[in-house]
Amino acid sequence: DAKTTQPNSMESNEEEPVHLPCNHSTISGTDYIHWYRQLPSQGPEYVIHGLTSNVNNRMASLAIAEDRKSSTLILHRATLRDAAVYYCILRDGQGAQKLVFGQGTRLTINP
Amino acid sequence: DAGVTQSPTHLIKTRGQQVTLRCSPKSGHDTVSWYQQALGQGPQFIFQYYEEEERQRGNFPDRFSGHQFPNYSSELNVNALLLGDSALYLCASSSSYRGRGSGNTIYFGEGSWLTVV
């Protein structure tokens, strides 16, 4: 399984943008980049995913490097409810239904 | 639309006992996976069920077994419990009909907290 590298923790202030980085230098051509987050005492929650192009949805934006070896999850205006562990996961688009989680980034939001 | 539901939410067992955890997938989903999450760690894949058969398995011993029923619900069984089995057990569901990788979002339940004493 291809691996990802994320900082252990990050801190930001409420209503400011947050950029969560992820390195995945061994990504293969069929791997999609998925982001999940896990709020305290809850199961992981899907955030966003992409293959090559940048992606936007109501929760966040995903910026993917041209060589696909890194990506950044962008929360445009962080709120206290965005405090969670964020996981960057590579998922084989050829059929893998399982997710391989790393340690993730613990995001703290200051009021 | 109910999401993934799991039961029980919390339970305490003694070493050597057996436990059964239950999961109902999100409406319209036919594939169920189970994950174990130890405190402070990311979830680890245990196995996946589709069409009532185990399709993929992670690095877990045979003490961990499962079942999927015709209505797509699933059970996770753990025999001969060890202290190290204490963890949050997460059920995840997805639809095989929506294709793979891209459009096939995986949804998680809130988990069952198992404490082995």
Question: What topology does this entry show?
Answer:
The complex is a heterodimer of chains A (111) and B (117).
Chain A: E1 9-13, E2 18-23, E3 31-38, E4 45-50, E5 55-56, E6 61-64, E7 70-75, E8 84-92, E9 105-110
Parallel strand pairs in A: 1-9
Antiparallel strand pairs in A: 2-7, 3-4, 3-8, 5-6, 6-7, 8-9
Chain B: E1 5-7, E2 10-13, E3 19-24, E4 31-37, E5 44-50, E6 53-57, E7 64-68, E8 74-78, E9 87-94, E10 107-108, E11 112-116
Can I get a quick summary?
Chain A has 111 residues and is an all-beta fold.
Which descriptors apply to this entry?
heterodimer; A: mainly beta; 5-stranded mixed sheet; 9 strands; globular; B: 117 residues; mainly beta; 4-stranded antiparallel sheet
Polypeptide structure, described:
The complex is a heterodimer of chains A (111) and B (117). Chain A has 111 residues and is mainly β. Chain A has strands at 9-13, 18-23, 31-38, 45-50, 55-56, 61-64, 70-75, 84-92, 105-110. Chain A contains no helices and nine strands. The mean pLDDT of chain A is 92. Chain B is an all-beta fold. Chain B is built from no helices and eleven strands. In chain B, strand 4 and strand 5 form a beta hairpin. The model of chain B has no long low-confidence stretch (mean pLDDT 92). The chains are: A mainly beta (111), B mainly beta (117). The interface between A and B is medium-sized, with 26 and 29 residues.
Q: What's the pLDDT, averaged over the residues of chain A?
A: 92
The unreliable regions of chain A are none
Poorly predicted parts of chain B: none
How is the main sheet of chain A built?
Answer: 5 strands, mixed
DSSP, total strands of chain B: 11
Shape of chain A: globular
Helix content of chain B: under 10%
Percent of residues of chain B in beta strands?
Answer: over 45%
What is the 3D form of chain B?
Answer: globular
Largest interface: A-B, 26 and 29 residues
Structural class of the helices, strands and pairings of chain B?
Answer: mainly beta
- From the alpha carbons, calculate the radius of gyration of chain B and give it in angstroms: 14 Å
Computed structural class of chain A: mainly beta
Strand content of chain A: over 45%
Q: Considering DSSP H and I runs of 4 or more, what fraction of the residues of chain A is helical?
A: under 10%
Output the radius of gyration of chain A: 13 Å
Which sequence of SSEs, written as H and E, runs from N to C of chain A? EEEEEEEEE
Query: What's the quaternary structure here?
Result: heterodimer
Number of helices of chain A: 0
Mean pLDDT across the residues of chain B is 92
Termini separation of chain B comes to 37 Å
